[in-house]
Amino acid sequence: MEQYKEYLQSKGISPSYQRLKILEYLDLHRTHPTVDEIYTALLPHIPTLSKTTVYNTLSLFVQEGLATMLVLDNVEARFDITVHPHGHFTCTQCGKVYDIDVTPFVHIPNTIDGHTIQYYQIALKGICKDCASH
Ligand SMILES: [Zn+2]
Ligand SMILES: [Zn+2]
User: Fold this and answer.
1) From the CA of 67, which ligand is nearest?
2) 97 CA to middle of ligand 1, Å?
3) Which CATH architecture is the domain 2-80 placed in?
4) What pTM was computed for the model?
């Protein structure tokens, strides 16, 4: 918990208990959880938690560069604590979202047509290795 506290403080975010728990959840569950998933998981530990607090905290994390938000298939937003550029692979059978390293295949320059690239999303779909082996 102490390292999360220092991490938030280093980003200028005051480390409230709720923020620490949400950051910890993202760190321990690198499954690209939705607001609902995080809320449902943390509610037993923080009875005063609201969905709005979860959403606002995640928005703050995204704004401060601690997390990224991804919207796959135009459904619910998912949150990711892995902020270095990477792609996502969604399994069309089980719905799991995997992080994948796309850098060996795709090179995105820092600028294109004079625009500064800060972030990109690459979304791939198919059958994951677990589903394929069943
Ligand atoms: Zn699968
Ligand atoms: Zn990811």
Assistant:
1) 2
2) 9
3) Orthogonal Bundle (1.10)
4) 0.83
